[in-house]
Amino acid sequence: MKILVVDDEPAQRELVSGFLARHGFEVLSAGDGREALERFRAEPVDLILTDQKMPGFSGLQLLEAARAVTPEIAVIVMTAYGTIEHAVAAIKAGASDYLTKPLNLDELLHRIGQVRDRQRLVGENRELRAALQERHRVEGVIGESGRMQEALSLVRRVAASDATVLIRGESGTGKELIAKAIHYASRRAEGPLVRINCAALPEGLLESELFGHEKGAFTGAHAMRRGRFELAHGGSLFLDEIGDLPPHLQVKLLRVLQEREIERVGSSHPIQVDVRLLAATHCDLEALLKEGRFRDDLYYRLNVVTISVPPLRERREDIPLLLDHFLSRFARENGKTIRGLTREARETLLRYDYPGNVRELENVVERAVVLTRDEVIGLADLPLAVREPEPDTGEAAGLPAAVEGLERRMIREALARADGIQTRAAELLGISERVLRYKLRKYGLSGG
Ligand SMILES: Nc1ncnc2c1ncn2[C@@H]1O[C@H](COP(=O)(O)OP(=O)(O)OP(=O)(O)O)[C@@H](O)[C@H]1O
Ligand SMILES: [Mg+2]
Known about the structure:
alpha/beta; 5-stranded parallel β-sheet; 14% strand; Rossmann fold; binds adenosine-5'-triphosphate; Helicase, Ruva Protein, domain 3; 4 domains
């Protein structure tokens, strides 16, 4: 067990440190609150044992700052005899325990033992809870919110069947992840999961990608090629962006769904396929129906089971879970030790609106993990757009506000491109460094 001992009186500090070291603890020490916080940021400990009254940075302030870094850190506060109100304040602020000075060293050992037992229990509980969650989890999909749990319960129920599933939701909400979850929870899990994006390919190519073609079916078709439907035989086909499927392919897809067979382009020989169809779209399909851009017969075929993935702003309680999930994933992938976020950074991330949904949160966290020079991610590691979302600078806000908005944006972009070097940013903007500095002050942007 590693203990950080904080006291501004050297004799007292050495007495306690020496005593604990002799009892087999690993001991770090600091002479004031600020130094203690530095040490704690640099090196995690199991317990902070701190004096309450120290010049400058009190034990209570240290407690608060340490909890911002590691919310579950155990802290024992030492208060002077007769200052019970300090002890009460410490416990209220989240201290694990308090001791009065002069210290009774046996009592100290006893209290440390209690902290250790409690930590062990908390650790075991956490493991139990994790094991329990594991059993109710759909592979890889994070979400404890009611709306997400509803979606996941549908995933589990529908996975067992061969029903066509239509997955709907805004961009970046996790539609593809849900499609994968369904496939791997289904009896087709051993079979292939083949994906095709209907919006990414030109019409002609899309057709032969889907259904394949015979040799000589069109110029450039030098050899026979199997389409994705054939490749997905025995598994699932994920048709992404189904709202962008061109009309004549909608007809062909409908036929496949009815007949369970395909014809390669340039052939009239039907081929049986055993494929489960999963489709996704961010489009308002009902609007497309009205405009005649999506066939209603296909719509009803696809719409057997619909899973709606809610946007992140409608399930904000999932943000902390996703945040921690991405933090540990990117820390691992980048070989970095990340011990958490500063309180400001965490609050900013919890407050932000995420128009790009989970993908945006994922990107923000990855960027921060890559950028940070610290083991703790701070406000400076977050993109400006997240730190201060764009104020309304539309026409309605008036010309001055719009000009200001444009200036802010251009200055930020220039600074980003110039790696924060003001001389270079001023050059990029075509203004003098003096004017740039003035504008940075004016817009409060200089904080980096
Ligand atoms: N609930 C979640 N748990 C963990 N990761 C998630 C979750 N939802 C989304 N992600 C991650 O966010 C990213 C975007 O998800 P995905 O590609 O599935 O979204 P999408 O809805 O298909 O987006 P688009 O409409 O833009 O194609 C992926 O990297 C995915 O792993
Ligand atoms: Mg997608």
